[in-house]
Amino acid sequence: MDIVNMFRYEKLQDVTLVGISYGGMVITGVAERVPEQIKELIYLDAFVPHDDESMADLVTPELWAAQERAAAQYGDGWRIPHTPPDADRRTCALMKTAKQPLAVKNAAAARLRRTYVLHTGKPPDNPLKPIMERMAARAREAGWNYREMPWVHFPVLDKPHEVASLLLEFA
Is the Cβ–Cβ distance between 155 and 161 less than 8 Å? Predict the structure, then answer.
């Protein structure tokens, strides 16, 4: 709701929203609420939910179990801190939001221009590799713009200029 409220309070228009990883859930949810204020959605190796899906629904049972173990061990059962916690400005991953299904039913939101960028630089044994490939397939099947970049899952930390350049290409 914070992002939706910012859109309303600031009277934002023609916004391009970018989501990385779980951020795909966020930008999809925002688009459902304020599609008239959005120009485009860009998913960078991000989750692409269908109606009534949560992030927990989109990952493998093994990965979800690992998330639950990490939350129990390091985050009081409800969150997963980033390691090390002071490495950057990322906040904890919250278990409750990861299990919350998203309503994806707004016809106006469905008409928004969307782009998916699959990051192909993940090692073969990375558990996110097949999940993000499945998300990319969803985007291609829906007719979205599509690109591939030879990046790992979260390139904004080590390739910020390259990510910014790519985003500017879409402008």
Answer: no
Residue-wise pLDDT tens digits, 129-167: 999 999 999 999 999 999 999 999 989 888 999 999 999
Q: Long-range contact list for 120-125, CB < 8 A, 24+ apart?
A: 120/148, 120/149, 120/150, 120/151, 121/149, 121/150, 121/151, 121/152, 122/152, 122/153
Burial of 52 (0-12, 13-18, 19+ CB in 10 A): exposed
Domains of the chain as residue ranges with CATH: 1-6+15-52+104-171 (3.40.50.1820), 54-100 (no CATH)
pTM comes to 0.91
Is residue 28 a contact partner of residue 50, using CB atoms and an 8 Å limit? no
Lowest mean pLDDT among 75-84, 121-130, 144-153: 75-84
